[in-house]
Design brief:
Layout lengths: L1 H23 L4 H29 L2 H21 L11
Helix pairs in contact: 1-2
């Protein structure tokens, strides 16, 4: 079950983030696409770096607990964020 949830979340991340970036800058779709790609790769790189450093200083189970805590924190932050619910389209 967790693997399915991870797969859906991992697959939805690029689509959602690119949509958010495009809505934030409707006049520059190329720039928002580049920003989406860069942020996605930067997130993966930082996660690999932090995970590698954590593994060097502790055990694999500690890395898994750290990852689970980070995921729980992201879920809480996302659930606590209340947007306006409206998307403004360019005229």
């Amino acid at each position: 079950m967790c693997l399915c949830v991870e797969g859906v979340a991992y697959g939805a991340d690029p689509v959602c983030s690119q949509t958010w970036f495009a809505n934030a800058s409707p006049d520059t779709p190329e720039a928002s696409s580049v920003l989406s790609t860069v942020s996605f790769h930067a997130t993966i790189s930082v996660g690999a770096l932090v995970g590698g450093l954590a593994l060097d200083r502790s055990s694999p189970s500690a890395v898994m607990l750290f990852g689970a805590a980070t995921a729980a924190l992201v879920v809480l932050i996302t659930a606590g964020h209340r947007g306006s619910g409206t998307v403004r389209m360019p005229a």
